[in-house]
Amino acid sequence: MKIIVLGGGVAGVTTAYYLARDGHEVEVVEQEDRLAGWASSGNAGLIAPGHSFAWASPAAPKMLVRSLLGAETAIRLKPRLDPELVRWGLRFLRECPSDRAQRNTLVKLRLCQYSQAQLEALAAEEAIEYGEGARGVFYLYRDARELEEGARKMRLLQDHGQDQEVLDADGCVQREPAFAPVRDRIAGAIYGKDDFSGDCERFTNALAEACKRRGVRFRLGTRVEALEAVGDHIAAVRTSGGRLRADAYVLSLGVHSPAISKTVGQQLPMYPAKGYSVTFPIRDAHEPPSHGGVDEATLVAWSSFGDRLRMSSTAEFAGYGRGWQERDFNNIMRAARELFPNAADYSAGEYRACLRPMTPDGPPILGYGRHGNLLYNTGHGHMGWTMACGTAKIAADLLQRRKPDIDLRGMEVRS
Ligand SMILES: Cc1cc2nc3c(=O)[nH]c(=O)nc-3n(C[C@H](O)[C@H](O)[C@H](O)COP(=O)(O)OP(=O)(O)OC[C@H]3O[C@@H](n4cnc5c(N)ncnc54)[C@H](O)[C@@H]3O)c2cc1C
Fold first, then answer.
1. 274 C-alpha vs ligand 1 centroid, how far in Å?
2. pTM
């Protein structure tokens, strides 16, 4: 079968790989001149089922109100007259009660656990090296009471298969010597033993090479403009390089997926959550952390990829712009200096803003909508690096009419 994958981020390239492995003729259409240049290049690098908690939770509305009052919260809302944001926001609020938050968290966890295993198998099979950090991720707390509360909350994940341990400050230093200089500033951590980190952009590009060896064609610098349907069938995709035809199509355009699905009448409940990330060079005299982690006080996440330290933070609901100002990185810079005073060269950061393709409930959109030959694999939100190999393998299963390895309830196409 000839299949066109729309989008050359981690979701699109992993999908192309599994499809090619099944023997399909695959072409990837990407508007940029390189792969994984959007969200897939700016993420924190965590491959972390232990980070599966749905953002729509009982705590979220309070945080949004505080952000509207001017506080520097991790989730921020920039009020604007945007019907798309209002619609998305109301659905987000509907998902905040604890029963829904728990259900959505467990859907994400199931997918993340599956995906992590797929990623490791694939990386081993194709001998892909992608700057993996040490195994184990720190969910770090500065306050003892919050650590206790965090440990209580994490039990949900432990009850569903995550191997985690609560560490006090000395336990943290023992596992991660980079915390030694700040031992007195931290209360402890929940240590996710199975979580780890790696460079998503590097992985995606290395995987693209493996795809090419299997015959996948990458059509870069080509913008998807619209889909064309005849009844419940997609007949072609209109691009800046002309009309392209295939037997089936996979939509993985990150935050632009809804704009393109709308051209054939399919609404997708997604909105961009802007995040900021900085990548610092690590030089000889530096002592970087070898494990990834999240500072639960500021929700700044970090990973080191060999000679670079990546730190990222913030979810800003403010439209599709990807611009940034220096002050947008204040909380990252503060956390970097407070937690890792000598981990990297903080004067030489590479700054970036990226858009997470967020669904209001959290799980991605995976499966068929109203067109029998258009598969959706998009909306991975804040966990797309962790989820990508899993959703790609499932997309290939669905296209091959094979039963996926996990239950897909909660990930269906929603409008
Ligand atoms: C700050 C930040 C931190 C994050 N941290 C983590 C983390 O630690 N762990 C984790 O698992 N996930 C993390 N994520 C989430 C993860 O990065 C995303 O979920 C993932 O990259 C989404 O991949 P994607 O391929 O769907 O989208 P993208 O990477 O955005 O790719 C979409 C691609 O489609 C192309 N495209 C768009 N429109 C068109 C068009 N019309 N025509 C042709 N091509 C088009 C784009 O150019 C792009 O290459 C983070 C995200 C951010 C922003």
1. 11
2. 0.98
Q: Exposed, middle or buried by CB within 10 Å (0-12, 13-18, 19+), for 170?
A: exposed
Report residues whose beta carbon is within 6 angstroms of any ligand 1 atom. 7-12, 29-32, 37-40, 42-46, 223-224, 252-254, 256, 275, 277, 301, 312, 354, 356-357, 378, 380-386
Q: Whose CA is nearest to atom 18 of ligand 1?
A: 384
- Provide the residue-wise pLDDT of the chain in tens; the chain has 415 residues: 999 999 999 999 999 999 999 999 999 999 999 999 999 999 999 999 999 999 999 999 998 888 888 887 888 888 888 999 999 999 999 999 999 999 999 999 999 999 999 999 999 999 999 999 999 999 999 999 999 999 999 999 999 999 999 999 999 999 999 999 999 999 999 999 999 999 999 999 999 999 999 999 999 999 999 999 999 999 999 999 999 999 999 999 999 999 999 999 999 999 999 999 999 999 999 999 999 999 999 999 999 999 999 999 999 999 999 999 999 999 999 999 999 999 999 999 999 999 999 999 999 999 999 999 999 999 999 999 999 999 999 999 999 999 999 999 999 999 9
Residue 49 CA, ligand 1 centroid: distance in Å: 18
Closest residue by CA, ligand 1 atom 21: 40
Q: Which of 29, 27, 394, 393 is nearest to 246 (CA)?
A: 27
Beta-bridge partners for 258: none
Contact 26, 226 (CB under 8 A): no
Quote the CA–CA distance of 140 and 138 in Å, as a whole number. Answer: 5
Residue nearest to atom 26 of ligand 1 (CA): 254
344: helix, strand or coil: coil
